[in-house]
Specification:
There is one protein chain. The protein is α/β, with parallel strands linked by helices. The protein is built from 8 helices and 8 strands, in the order E-E-E-H-E-E-E-H-E-H-E-H-H-H-H-H. The strands form 2 sheets. Strands 1-5-4-7-3-8 form a 6-stranded mixed beta sheet.
Length: 253
Amino acid sequence: MTAFTPDSPLVAEVRPAANHDERRDGREPDILLLHYTGMASTEAACAKLCAADGGVSCHYVVLEDGRILQLVPEERRAWHAGRSSWEDETDVNSRSIGVEIANPGHDHGYPDFPQEQIAAVIELARDICARRSIQPERVLAHSDVAPLRKIDPGEKFPWGRLAAAGVGHWVTPTPIEDTTALGPGDEGEPVEQLQTLLSLYGYGLEIDGFYGETMLAVVRAFQRHFRPARVDGIADFSTSRTLRNLLRRLPAR
C-alpha cells in the first residue's frame, strides 16, 4: 500500500501495512480494540504488522515513547482481532479500529506501560472515539473479544486511568474478600445466571449452566479488564458484584 493521509492529527509517522481489505456490509467502526504487540522487539512487531507475509495488521501502533504510527486508514478493515466475537458479532475486524500498544507482553517479562505511552493512548483513544462516536462500553481489550486465545493488553494496563480521562467503561472494582465462589466444574442455576450477565455485557459464551473451559477463560478476561488485582478465573463476590455494577451503568439498549 502506498502512503496515505493520517486520520488523526496525533500521528507522527505513516507506515503503510500490506494486509487490509474493505469493511464488510458497509459497516462503520463502533469498537476501539486495544492490544499489546507481544514481541520482544518493537521494531520486529512493527515490521510484522506491515509485512505482506505477516498475515496481520492494525490501524495504529503507540510506541513506548508515546509516538503514534498509523499503518492502515480507518476506513479500511485491518486484520488485528482474529477469531473473535462481541455481542454476537463475529467479524470484529469490520466493526473495529485496532490499536497496538508496544509492550513485549507476558511471554517476554511484561513490563509496566510507560507513563508517556499511556498518555498517548488516551489522547489517541479520545480522538478516535470523538470522531467515530464510539461509546465508552465499546472500548475493549483483545482478551475481551477472544478470551480463549488472547490475554492482551493484560492486567497491568491501566483501564481506570483511561476511564478517569473519559475513555472506556469502568467502575471501581469491588474489594476482594474470601467468600463463596463459583469455579471450574460447578453447574446449575448460579452458573447460568452469571453466564447470562456476562453475555449481556457482551462476552461470547454459551449459556449452559456449566463452568467449563470457556467460562473460565471469559471470567479471566473480565478480571484482566475490570478486576485486575486477582486474575484466576474464579467468580468470587468481587468479580460478580463488579460485573453487576458495570451492567447497571450501561446505557439503555
